[in-house]
Amino acid sequence: MNKVSIISIGDELLIGQTINTNAAYIGEKLTALGYEVLKTFVVGDSKEDILIVLREAESISDFIFITGGLGPTHDDITRSCILQYFNTRLVFHEETFERIKKLFERRNIAMPEINRDQAMVPEIAKVIPNDYGTAPGYDIEKDGKRFFVMPGVPHEMKGMMESTILPDLKRLIQSKGIFYNQILLYTTGIPESALYSKLQDLYPLFEEVKVAFLPSQFGVKIRLSYRSESEELNLKKIKFVEEKIYERVGDYIYSNEKPAIEEVIGIILTEKKLKLAVAESCTGGLLCDRITNVPGSSNYFERGVVSYSNESKIQILGVNPETIKTFGAVSEQTAIEMARGVRNISNADIGLATTGIMGPTGATETKPIGLVFIGYSDKNREFAKQFNFADNRIRNKERTSQAALEILWRMLTGREVN
Amino acid sequence: MNKVSIISIGDELLIGQTINTNAAYIGEKLTALGYEVLKTFVVGDSKEDILIVLREAESISDFIFITGGLGPTHDDITRSCILQYFNTRLVFHEETFERIKKLFERRNIAMPEINRDQAMVPEIAKVIPNDYGTAPGYDIEKDGKRFFVMPGVPHEMKGMMESTILPDLKRLIQSKGIFYNQILLYTTGIPESALYSKLQDLYPLFEEVKVAFLPSQFGVKIRLSYRSESEELNLKKIKFVEEKIYERVGDYIYSNEKPAIEEVIGIILTEKKLKLAVAESCTGGLLCDRITNVPGSSNYFERGVVSYSNESKIQILGVNPETIKTFGAVSEQTAIEMARGVRNISNADIGLATTGIMGPTGATETKPIGLVFIGYSDKNREFAKQFNFADNRIRNKERTSQAALEILWRMLTGREVN
User: Fold this and answer.
1) Banded pLDDT at B74 (limits 50, 70, 90)
2) String of DSSP letters for B67-95
3) What is A273-330 written as a DSSP string?
4) What pLDDT, in 10s, does the model give residues B153-185?
5) From CA A364, how far away is CA B187, in angstroms rounded?
6) How confident is the model at residue A218 (pLDDT cuts 50, 70, 90)?
7) Chain B residues with CB-CB distance to A27 below 8 A
8) Rounded to two decimals, what is the model's pTM?
9) Residue B180 main-chain phi, psi, to 5 deg
């Protein structure tokens, strides 16, 4: 009775022009409410194919989510499929007409005839208003099944989900006495297999509270979830396992709330009233970019220097030319001098630096692609740590930036840097 | 006879933990060869569901691509579904066993029993070797239909596609006398609607050569494609329309080959032996990051300064404190002085600078979120251009970096900057 199918409509999805992020979004949100997503169908702009998958989705599920093909142009055929499938007709929807009219008024554009037609909606449907575009969504109930029809433009679809559909479906499932809760533990600096084996003695517990390991390029997320007739019970069960996991691998968990380590770092720097300065060679700006993606980062991020050339390392950061000559630009010594240099010139409390060989060129006999040194400097401690990321250029940059942020987070939280 | 279905297997896809990039990749590559992708099915790790979609996919298509569920753990059930569906049995595959053994030897790890089992393959299958992981792929032919079964790990799947499947399917479709060709024209700095209306008189041509407009956050791609029994004819037809498009909107087309404008810029800077230096305030490192994503960028990218604080603008770049006091850090004057400053200190030929208000905080009565100035300086010319990107923080950073790169490209190619 909580089974869901998703139908994504559009040629652009089949030919790979557009990646189907909508289905992932809908799947994630509904799973988090306790619904069970069974299947996703992707079909092109073909009436026949759409009608076939509608029948199929209805036969296996209670809730059917349909996105795409509601635009005003000739290849948007979802509405006419709905008319045929439900054997209904178009009626004029005053509120939608007024909403679309206002949208164009705000943009100072005369409303094109093609958009006027979008106020005609299937008689059987309850209209879901669109806060971000012209096409209305439809909420259709038939024989105990619910169909939600939405535009394919992601932020229009998400607007409808968040303002109307998700709150409604949350009430609905809770009224049936089903509660689902989950938390995510964000780890970094430890591979999935090592994490898994450190938690070995907890496996029996994982059969009760559902535990999943989700690796990404920046770390492994651990998801704990529980479903029962009581929210209180769920939270208690999850908490119990969460604490056991923290006991074993808490050293690698940077948050149970914030997905990005740079955000966690921002909160700590703000609390401790510390300023950060960064000197990047091999990461080429990515490290600063990630730090400044956090709103309010100008409060603690003082400056960054992308010292790509040796001259810039010497001239701006004050790295000793002899250091570069003796040990090379990619060395422990240079990394430390870069971190110290950027801290000194900026009067920041902490200096962080990266230098390495990202590839595909630049390797030498003693310095292979992926060799990286990350330098750290504050008033009490200076060091550089070596890494070997034998990956491609972009991945090497990503992994280096993550390792640098991990070192910073470890120092800020009094953890060991090994 | 060229109809394709894709089956993506895995709970992680349904619950939105993983976005289905595999289906987009397969769809794009097969479309480019001239195949027609009809449908994608996403199902969880359920034997029953997998068998149902296998039957369905077989009934509507000639080529069925299956990814996911080939790993060594208990929830990887694709292989046993294949055994049941084709009524075949497992046989030991010597070459695969040797390949997996070597993989572990290279990593200096003893081969676990669980991986040994992966050398057992369905008797009916031709093995597709995996260059990047343990699980072999299967190529199965039955009643004139082809099934390709691959792991879900994207780079393992892509490795099999590129080394084995795509070359094979290219020969196959060409042997049937079907040729498909396409080119992409990459534009920037012009919205889809404006582009479309500038090409109005060409619409009749678009019915013959298929033309599609593909907007993204960095610009609009125009795809021209043609399918016939002759590659020569395809290229001639496409060339004819391409030239007409260049005549009308060539001013916005930065490449018909390279997707990233930073790569095009890199080629020009290398050819002209010019050095670039960058001063970023609001983009916070993103502009340098994009420039240094290009292999070999150290040949022309001298340095970048992420001058987030006013002190760093004054101290490193030599911006006049009076300029900031009088006009503000977000102003035409400051943008020009930043560009000039970074060029001067680095002896680069070109200085490029960004300053703006990215949000969500930092707006004032006269300076709203999204206000941006991009500064440019070379030995002949200095200017700053104003933009108003009223978007969210991340999008504002992306749009500003793109606008800066567009200005640089326009200056390097002798185009107007309006």
Assistant:
1) low
2) ES--SSSTT--HHHHHHHHHT--EEE-HH
3) T--EEEEESTTTTHHHHHHHTSTTGGGTEEEEEE--SHHHHHHTT---HHHHHHH-SS
4) 898 999 999 999 999 999 999 999 988 898 999
5) 38
6) confident
7) 13-16
8) 0.87
9) -130, 135
> B308, B312, B316, B393: which to substitute to probe chain A, counting the most A Cβ within 10 Å?
B308
- The single-letter code of the amino acid at A7 is I
Contact (CB<8Å) A17/B39: no
Give the tens place of pLDDT for each residue, B12-46.
Answer: 899 998 899 999 999 999 998 999 999 999 999 99
Q: Least CB-CB distance to B302: which of A305, A312, A345?
A: A312
Could A303 and B308 be called an inter-chain contact, meaning their C-beta atoms sit closer than 8 Å?
yes
Residue A272 DSSP class: T
pLDDT bin (cut points 50, 70, 90) of residue B213 is: confident
The mean pLDDT of A40-59, rounded to a whole number, is 96
What is the chain B residue with the closest CA to A21? Answer: B19
Residue from the list B31, B44, B286 with its beta carbon closest to the beta carbon of A15: B31
What is the separation of C-alpha A37 from the centre of its chain, rounded to a whole number of angstroms? 20
Report the distance separating Cα A34 and Cα A3, nearest Å.
10
pLDDT at A269 > cutoff 90? yes
**Measured on CA atoms in the order A164, A165, A171, A175, is the torsion positive or negative?**
positive
Strand-pairing partners, residue A216, are A219
- Contact list in A for residue B37 (CB cut-off 8 A) is 14-16, 44
- Residue whose pair of structure tokens reads 């939600």 in the numeric block: A148
What gap in Å lies between CA A255 and CA A247, rounded to an integer?
14
| ipTM of predicted complex | 0.87
Among A16, A286, A298, beta carbon nearest to B27: A16
* Contact residues, chain A, for B266 at CB < 8 Å: none
Q: Which helix (H) or strand (E) is A352 found in, with range?
A: strand A350-356
| Count of CB atoms situated within 10 Å of the CB of B247 | 9
Domains, chain B, ranges and CATH? Answer: 3-175 (3.40.980.10), 179-255 (3.30.70.2860), 261-412 (3.90.950.20)
